[in-house]
Design a protein that fits this description.
globular; 97 residues; 32% strand; 4-stranded mixed β-sheet; 6 strands
Length: 97
């Protein structure tokens, strides 16, 4: 089984993005842990808001996984390492436009 299929199997949901869905462009981190995301319109959302938005198709390129009782976002493999969540820059939580 190739790596893309294996990663997709770890996702609970892969929502269909809307035509106007935003991209995640940065990670908000506190003490090394992701606490939120910067979106392509420069808004900052916390992890739970981002999960809810992704479920509604408002964020593209991500799937939803869980660890214990906590849901979180994971990149959907597309062959482009540059847009993987782990490769995005860290941003300050007050970098709002």
């Amino acid at each position: 089984m190739d790596g893309h299929k294996l990663v997709k199997q770890t996702l609970d949901q892969i929502p269909q993005p809307n035509s106007n869905a935003k991209q995640i462009t940065g990670l908000v981190k506190e003490r090394g842990r992701i606490t939120g995301y910067q979106l392509s319109d420069n808004t900052i959302v916390n992890k739970q808001q981002a999960v809810n938005m992704a479920k509604l198709g408002q964020i593209a390129g991500v799937g939803i996984a869980h660890r214990g009782d906590t849901e979180y976002l994971k990149s959907i493999p597309n062959g482009n390492e540059n847009d993987n969540l782990g490769n995005l820059p860290s941003v300050s939580p007050n970098t709002q436009a």
